[in-house]
């Protein structure tokens, strides 16, 4: 790893911690007590919480031989560091390569890190649209499940339909998985249908292959069909970018909610609250606020 030697000492210490014998202790030494980790609009505060979420997102050692450089400073008190692979090669990540990753650090008066905001740069296909928003009509689809049987969207046959783009390896998909499945079981008797779609290219991560998906279904992990978007056409037409990413449709196929299952993957007590609230409003025929939240998770692994 090439360290950002022109960065402030606390920023250098944060990167050095990743290669140390005790990464958590190294990070704690350079973080302010009220530090905030801001990723995809989700803000985690406090040293212990930040160390936990960083460990979840970025396991020790995954960065490998990254070359870091400090970008020109445009805002007082902020330092942005960009990492790229050797010779411009794609960066490794816990589930697939990405073009680059930026970390913007805000420092307090003592030089400690008071905020960290990572921004990964995953290449996206040119025909990827903006995500469907509340009020949009969802495009229909027919996809095979893990056994090859064709499954279609058919929103008019249910009181509500939940489409979840997910996968087999992303820690956010796995972290929210049980909450989403329990919601599927709880709402099945009320006429709600859940469809799970794996859009990831298994050439990027073999865990997203059909065999692994079939094993999870066989073991009873899914309360609804698990579909394979092999050509990624559905993800592109829906504008999905993350795993997980949730879309709730009413009986006319209109998007009523888009975003994350709830506010915090690390808090099981939230119980997919945003998803459940969306379903309650669709079933009651009332408007939802908020109807659009920021999905938080791994980026979809595109086959380009």
Give a quick summary of the entry.
The chain is of the alpha+beta class. The protein has helices spanning 9-17, 23-28, 47-57, 171-187, 210-218, 233-238, 273-284, and strands spanning 31-39, 42-45, 67-70, 78-84, 100-107, 113-121, 142-144, 150-152, 160-165, 192-198, 226-228, 242-243, 245-250, 255-259, 298-299.
Write the layout of secondary structure elements.
Elements: H1 9-17, H2 23-28, E1 31-39, E2 42-45, H3 47-57, E3 67-70, E4 78-84, E5 100-107, E6 113-121, E7 142-144, E8 150-152, E9 160-165, H4 171-187, E10 192-198, H5 210-218, E11 226-228, H6 233-238, E12 242-243, E13 245-250, E14 255-259, H7 273-284, E15 298-299
Parallel strand pairs: 1-6, 9-10, 10-11
Antiparallel strand pairs: 1-2, 3-4, 4-5, 5-6, 7-8, 9-13, 12-15, 13-14
Which stretches are low in confidence, meaning pLDDT under 50 for 5 or more residues running? Answer: none
Query: With helices defined by DSSP (H or I, 4 residues minimum), what is the helix count?
Result: 7
- Return the CATH class of the largest domain: Alpha Beta
Kindly report the average pLDDT value: 89
Number of domains: 2
Q: Provide the helix percentage.
A: 10-25%
Please provide the count of β strands: 15
As for the CATH topology of the largest domain, it is: Glutaredoxin
